[in-house]
Model the fold of this input.
Amino acid sequence: MKKQPLKALALFAVLTGGLTAVAVQATEVSDVLKAGAVKVQAAKSAQTSVDRIADQTDVLLQEFKQVNKQIESLRVYNSQLERQIASQQQMMDELVESIENATVIERGISPLMENMLKGLQEFVALDVPFKRDMREEAVERLFSNLDSAKFSAAEKFRQILELYDIESEYSLTIENYRDLIDINGDGTEVEVDVLRVGRVALMYQTKDKSQTGAWNKATKSWETLGSEYRRPVDQGIRIAKKLSPQDVMEMPINAPESAQ
Done:
């Protein structure tokens, strides 16, 4: 009866020793796992650092390549600038020579511009009387500019050529505008629609379309036309206003003068 407790005690000791060994092994495994986790974390940090350095290296490499391209572009640009400077120097030398001759040229061109304006003034006075006031004012304005120090000789000449171009365009266009004219020759002005077809024909029609007329170059006066011209002139006005497509128009045209 007394031996059974001893066996129980021995069994307890064995169990206790086994549990202690298991606990020790579990502690060692935990330590190993912790050490492994630390190594993994260190490896991740190291890889992150490597990736960051690699990215920075790639950025620096791209910047280096870009700087090299800019340097090459600057070399080409500097070479081009050197050629431009040489060309500009040549132009400056030519301008100095031109300036020395400018006074002589201006003395010769001033009379030419005055004669051009006089010729244009006479032409407007003899031409069919469309927009005459506006055209005469344009010529007078350029006469005033001839004596003005505000404009250079080149600018004055450009303005005269521009006015010549405008007058030349009148021969190639069809136009409609409102105007007050003395259609009866009694000094009473009537508001009418004027139709200009180049310089070939200049016609008018009252707003109520009751009266149609044309400028007679021979008599230098307005003449009333027959009723057969009412519709053609009205059609021409609509064409000039771009309300109708271009078409053949019947117009009163003076017979051409015989050559002298």
Notes: The chain has a mean pLDDT of 82. DSSP finds four helices and five strands in the chain.
